[in-house]
Amino acid sequence: MSTTAVLERTTPKLQSAARPRYVSTAILVLVALYCLLPVAWVVIAATKGPEDLFTTFSFWPSFNGGFGYNLSHLLEFRDGIFWKWALNSLLYAGAGSLLSVVISVTAGYALAKYKFSGREAIFRCILAGVLVPQITLAVPQYLLMSKLGLVNSYWSVLLPSIISPYCIYLSRIYASAVVSDDMLEAGRIDGAGEYRLAWSIGIPPMVPGMVTIFLLQFVAIWNNFLLPYIMISDDRHFPMTVGLFSMLNQGASQPALYSLVIMGAFLSVLPLIALFLFLQRYWRIDLVSGAVKG
After folding, report:
1. Are 85 and 143 members of one domain?
2. Could you tell me if 30 and 88 lie in one domain?
């Protein structure tokens, strides 16, 4: 059979095999555009002053000094309360996600590597907690915090944020997959205690999972609106989500605040982008090192 005949037979097959890839790529591009379009609009709208924001609608940034105007007036709004909101968001998200990592990894490791009475019942309760929407728990959490006298304090937002059934479930699954039972048993034979085994053998391979949990919780707490909105009435304890919402409500009587709210939304996204870029590098390093050690 000649080379030309072979090419004629194989070309249609290659073309038919390439079509699904083109279709999937086109779908991914459309999904990416759908997700990035609101972000692009916020970035562009942040460059427009109050007069440009309401008089023109275009996906072209303004070069009339609107960005500097919005930024300076936002940071000066009510003696710089936006900085207070930003620090509150950092406190809620940073401390909450770190404590959540500790609790989730500890609980997940224990559920995965220790056999005790009621283990499966506890795990089923955690799975049930994963299925419960967090929004339905806001009012019961408020009533509980009210009984404890913690409403309108930092603890009223931090305490409900550190327990995540999904993160405990993820830790349990991850610990079952990456922590070797043979290594733990060898350590016990050598006389190592359980705390030493957990610290030396259990925790190191779980670092990528811990980074994942930290990212999930940080983003969830950073973007959380309903819980602090219900728990806190003092605007000095507001995170950025609730603080910007209060500014948006004032925009009905002061339309110039709308451009400041957009600038605040733009600034609130930047820490999340920086966090993902920073931790993704260590995430990949941990995954590679774990594969090499394995």
Report:
1. yes
2. no
